[in-house]
Amino acid sequence: MFKNYLKIAWRNLIKNRIFSIANIMGLTCAFAVALLLTMTAMFELSFDQFHENKNSTYQVYLTNQTPRGAEVSTSNPVPLAKALKEEVPGIKQITRSLSEDALVTYKEKNLNLDAEYVDPEFFNLFTFAVINGNTNNPLPTKNSVSISEETALKTFGTTNVVGEILQIRIGSEEKPFTVASILENTPANSSMDFDIVIPFENHPEYESNKDVWNSQFLPVYLQLEEGVTTQQFEENTRAFANLHYAESIESDKRDGATPDVNGQYKQFHLMPITDMHFASFKAGKAEAPRTFPYIILGVALVIIFIVCANFINMNIALSEKRLKEIGMRKTLGAVKKQLFFQFWMESVIVFLIAIGLGLMVSNLLIDPFKTLFNTKATFAEVTQPGIIVLFAASIFVITLIAGGYPALLLSKLSTLRALKGKLDLGKNRLRNGLIVLQFVIAIILISGTLVLHGQIDFLRNKDLGYNKEQVVSIPLNGRKDSYAVLDLLRDELSQNSDILSVSGSDSNLGLGKDGSITSSAMGFEYKGRGVVTNALTVDYDYAKTLDIELKSGRMFNREFSTDSLSMVINESMAKQLGEEDPLSIRIPMDDSITYSVVGVVKDYNFQEVSRKIKPLTLFMNRNWDLYYAYVKIAPQNTAQSFDAIKNAWEKVEPQAEFLGSFLDENVDRTFKREKTMATIITSGSVLGIILSCLGLFAISMLVVAQRTKEIGVRKVVGASVSSVALLLTKDFLKLVGLAFFIATPIAWYFLNEWLQNYASHVSLSPLFFLGAGLTASLIAFITVGSRTVKAASANPVKSLRTE
């Protein structure tokens, strides 16, 4: 019996080869794309899940009740970790961890490595496997380091290097360190990515800040004792916060801050380490919305839904051709169960073929896919037993519906009616519902595509307040003093007429090739109230190099020897200080040093473009290091100018890698996630609309076949081709119109919510949704119209002879 089902199923697939090929092609594309998208989403969701203590390890963050509202800080003072462990019960282990670049030298090799400054307990909290060396204590002494396997091979050519000596630049001097252990390379799904691990006590800021509570610049992680909850930890730290932050609390009270619901002005919280990759902070609390991977999964699911809806509709469309076969089977005694298995077997064969081809296609596309979407995901993410079982169950259910529904529909027909080949599906609610759902999804995806690209263009073309097209930023990652490097660069480029200016700062604009994006904040008292500002150390010609507009006063000038005690502020900072004449402001800092405001610059986006511009203060003190150089070039000959900068760098810092990039590239990198999301949704929109129209084409064939005689009669009595085609098409366009009215409010709601994440964003114009609706309608009209025009143009005599 089974062999008979299989044989007939195969014959029917061959007989209806156009429908079979359409089904298999659609399912193959859908499975291949869905597999790649699911792989990417599961990879994102797997971040930091490999740590053995993931369920009891947290990152510490502090919520501050300020006059400006609740503010969150993950940057903590150096003495916090030790004090928490000693004074707060319930903490099993605690560690500090700070990511910075480190210049490492071995013989003639100079390497700029991603370093992690940590306490020894770091390896008890986080699972980073040791492959060579001391597995119990990878950092046994203050002068020992751990390096990754990749770093060992790059530096020594082997991993058997325990005991070797490396020279590491710490602050302004080089110190020897002994390699104590070799670590496995950090997993691709780790929020922490490092090449070398250095004991925290060696950090250049450690000694000067080990007892200072108002200098906050490092993350702290801890593991709770078994049975201790995060709520208990928060309660246990309230007295601790009131004690160690008493001065800051008094300042906030004086300035008008209001306490939280528990009466606290400072409250410690814990964020699970599995949330770090997704963390955002709103209203004083940490959130971890997994929006990006869920959107990817959503696109994969709707693509599968669309193609499965098509499959069901095509099976229904094919049913008309098989009515006489069904009637004959019923005459010979076939029962519902046998009809059901026959249709189900055909569905299973199609799905198995499509799955096999989909696996082949996804394997061919995986490398370009990973490059396009900048992901390190692999098929290992989707070969987990749970996912395979879920996938198999889904296929079983889909084939059951796709094969079972037509069988159920046909088995209800009387044998006589089946033998006559009469099947009226003109009012089929399931068919119409599936079409509407398909186009609802397609219109939402098209709307999302249009808004996403609109927002990206808005961010890309927004006036950031500085010149991003003509300025090259270069990480100062060499061994020489940063100011000396800037002076040498100026000298090397001074004879090049296309080089207009050179300057530097301690923070980059955008995200450079070094992958680092940092900011620094500070607070001080001004006229009896607390003031918080972002701080930036710059060199001469900073505003000139970046074309930042000066609103009043002046920038730092070589002719003024006192500029090391001067400040230049932005408009937001001037507004916060509240003086009519900002140039009259004098601010006393630590050690009775007074700084004077000498200039005010126009607000510019010194942080990510998505953020609101905050108060900023520029300093120029040569005792503070710079980390980036800026070189402004003339608009002509940009390629030659860039090469000239690179050549000058190789003369100035021959041992350091040149990582220069234009600022517009840096800015683009800051919304890489948005561009990836736009690419995924655009691809999903295109594939979704193609698959939807594929199903629509199949249904239009069915409807035309059912109304062949009607078409002939209308032609005989004088109906034109256009009127007949419009008559056959309008029912489908009504369904698309209904889909538009359902999809628009849904798309508007979710897109509006997403845009609220940006301080400035594109306006949600009705044109986005009208464009999506018109696009879907036009494609549907072309799809159905091509079939209906052909039917309306046929000889009416042939139509009337059809029986």
User: What structural category arises from helix and sheet content?
Assistant: alpha+beta
Helix proportion range: 40-55%
**What is the number of helical segments per DSSP (H or I, 4+ residues)?**
25
How does the major sheet shape up?
A: 7 strands, mixed
Question: How would you describe this protein?
Answer:
By secondary structure, the chain is α+β, with helices and mostly antiparallel strands. It has four domains: 176 residues, no CATH class; 189 residues, no CATH class; 155 residues, no CATH class; 181 residues, no CATH class. The protein is 49% helix and 19% strand. It is built from 25 helices and 26 strands. The strands form five sheets. Strands 18, 19, 20, 21, 22, 23 and 24 form a seven-stranded mixed β-sheet that branches. Strands 4-5-10-7-9-8 form a six-stranded mixed barrel. Helix 10 runs parallel beside helix 13 and helix 12 crosses helix 13. The model has no long low-confidence stretch (mean pLDDT 84).
